[in-house]
Amino acid sequence: MASTKRDYYEVLGVAKNATEEDIKKAYRKLAMKFHPDRNQGDGAKAAEEKFKEAKEAYEMLTDAQKRAAYDQYGHAGVDPNMGAGRGGPGAEGFGGFAEAFGDIFGDIFGGQGGGRRGGGQQVYRGSDLSYAMEITLEEAARGKETQIRIPSWEGCETCGGTGAKPGTSAKTCGSCGGSGTVHMRQGFFSIQQTCPHCHGSGKIIPDPCMACNGQGKVKKQKTLEVKIPAGINEGMRIRSAGNGEPGVNGGPSGDLYIEIRIKQHDIFERDGDDLHCTMPVSMITAALGGNIEVPTLGGKAEIELPEGTQHGKTFRLRGKGIKGVRSSYPGDLYCHIAVETPVKLTEHQKKLLKELDESLKKGGERHSPNAKSWTDRVKDLFK
Ligand SMILES: [Zn+2]
Ligand SMILES: [Zn+2]
């Protein structure tokens, strides 16, 4: 067989002393001309032969070791079937093509990889799916059992799962010979990649089924029971194994991830296991002190406000926060006091306040705990 082979230099149309750059250039030209994508119908077979011939010549002559062996012994010196540039049986790939074209086609030919060979076809795990679920703070604190509707896939009834229009059938992919993989050479390494034409299925469907767009499966919906653990927090994910997209060629399904979003609460703000709330308290109550009622996630509680409580004072209610998913104890509730200035006063109320003001002024700084340090600081500033 080797004797009928054309000389590699002749195939590429380059001189015996051609540089690697010359060889690449020549191959690029031939590859463009004879690539199966550009040669369909009549003459496809002949073009494919030419393409393979050019590819082999290119692979041999761009490998310094093999080129030396070829220069010395001719075809007898190199056996393309033993080379690193070749894959296993049936893997008649377009290796070297992407390499020769570098960045231009690299993306298209740089397959997704990640697959594993099984029964001659690429087997892929299905993609993971993500589902955003919004819950209230109360639900997050107590946990929740709920149902969600998620996509599921069923075999297409119209084509019986083949993906081909009824009455037609899928053809073996010409690019990979049905293996689903092609081999690309990079230096001394041969890299197995998913066939870019059939995406690893090994089959091409000339007439796809209209019902499933040639997928062989149709997207449906199914109901899934979900248990949300008590204490879950914003951004946490619940994994539901095997409920993602189905695998390819019998590969395992991906997983479903339910990502938790917590709705903004009217009263509480969460910080880890702790809760915070702001309690408006009238100026009078703050001054005189007294019991005030505060809300908690588990009902109402009371705070004893001391006389002369200042704005911004924080009270901690131990254990009235949230017990996190991995916590042994619940967090605390922090009540921040916001002293409220009365508004829309009547003339009479204004008069009373003015009288109060006069009275307080007579008492001097002892009625204003922050005033002295404040005036001192201002004095320092202008010294
Ligand atoms: Zn179908
Ligand atoms: Zn293929």
Automatic annotation (TrEMBL):
Ranges where the CR-type domain occurs: 143-221
Function: Participates actively in the response to hyperosmotic and heat shock by preventing the aggregation of stress-denatured proteins and by disaggregating proteins, also in an autonomous, DnaK-independent fashion. Unfolded proteins bind initially to DnaJ; upon interaction with the DnaJ-bound protein, DnaK hydrolyzes its bound ATP, resulting in the formation of a stable complex. GrpE releases ADP from DnaK; ATP binding to DnaK triggers the release of the substrate protein, thus completing the reaction cycle.
NCBIfam families: DnaJ_bact, PRK10767.1
CXXCXGXG motif repeat residue intervals: 156-163, 173-180, 195-202, 209-216
GO MF annotation terms: ATP binding; heat shock protein binding; unfolded protein binding; zinc ion binding
Note on domains (UniProt): The J domain is necessary and sufficient to stimulate DnaK ATPase activity. Zinc center 1 plays an important role in the autonomous, DnaK-independent chaperone activity of DnaJ. Zinc center 2 is essential for interaction with DnaK and for DnaJ activity.
Annotated region described as Disordered, given as residue ranges: 357-383
Binding site for Zn(2+) 1: C156, C159, C209, C212
Keyword Transmembrane helix: no
Main location: cytoplasm
Ranges where the J domain occurs: 7-74
Keyword Cytoplasm: yes
Family annotation (PROSITE patterns): DNAJ_1, DNAJ_2, ZF_CR
Protein name: Chaperone protein DnaJ
Cofactor(s), names only, from the UniProt record: Zn(2+)
Quaternary structure (record): Homodimer.
Classification via Pfam families: DnaJ, DnaJ_C, DnaJ_CXXCXGXG
GO biological process, one term: protein refolding
GO cellular component, one term: cytoplasm
Protein family: Belongs to the DnaJ family.
Localization, UniProt: Cytoplasm
InterPro entries: DnaJ (IPR012724), DnaJ_C (IPR002939), DnaJ_domain (IPR001623), DnaJ_domain_CS (IPR018253), HSP40/DnaJ_pept-bd (IPR008971), HSP_DnaJ_Cys-rich_dom (IPR001305), HSP_DnaJ_Cys-rich_dom_sf (IPR036410), J_dom_sf (IPR036869)
Origin: domain of life: Bacteria
Zn finger (CR-type) location: 143-221
Positions bound to Zn(2+) 2: C173, C176, C195, C198
